[in-house]
Amino acid sequence: MTITLLLDLDETLLDTNLEAFVPAYYQKLAAHLAPYVAPEKMLKYLTLGTRKMMESEDPSRTLREVFDENFYPFLDVDRDGIQPVLEDFYDNVFPSIREVTRPIPGAVEFVEWAFAAGHRVVVATSPYFPRKANYHRLRWAGLPPEKYPFVLVSSYEDFHFTKPHPAYFAEVLGRLGWPDDPVVMIGNDVAQDLRPAAALGLPTYHSVDVTPSADGFEATGRGTLAELRGWLERTDPATLAPSFSSPASLLALLRAAPAALWGLLTPLAPAALTARPAADAWSVTEILCHLRDVEREVDLPRIRKILAEADPPIPAQTPDEWAKTRGYQGQDGMSALREFTSARVETLGLLAGLAPAQWSRKARHSIFGPTTLQELVGFSAEHDRLHIQQAWRNIETG
Question: What gap in Å lies between CA 384 and CA 248, rounded to an integer?
Answer without folding.
Answer: 16
